[in-house]
């Protein structure tokens, strides 16, 4: 069963809707969104609310739920 999320590109102010699997990693989401916007995935992080998500965590480990909105942000550590 897929999980429906939105990934908001903070720099562009646009949103991408995605269906993801519970076993995907946060990095998989970053990679897909970055590819869509033709960006380097290594230069970005995802934020849920006030928390930065760990790239290696799965969707389940990161507690990503149906209809969540995640923000794609430039990596504060420089990527």
Describe this structure in words.
Helix content is 14%, strand content 34%. The protein is α+β, with helices and mostly antiparallel strands and 79 residues long. The chain is globular. The mean pLDDT is 95.
How would a textbook summarize the main sheet? 5 strands, mixed
Radius of gyration: 11 Å
Number of helices: 1
Roughly what percent helix?
Answer: 10-25%
Intertermini distance: 32 Å
SSE string, helices as H and strands as E: EEHEEE
Strand order of the largest sheet: 2-1-5-3-4
Low-confidence stretches: none
Mean pLDDT: 95
List keywords for this structure.
single chain; 79 residues; alpha+beta; five-stranded mixed sheet; 1 helix; 5 strands
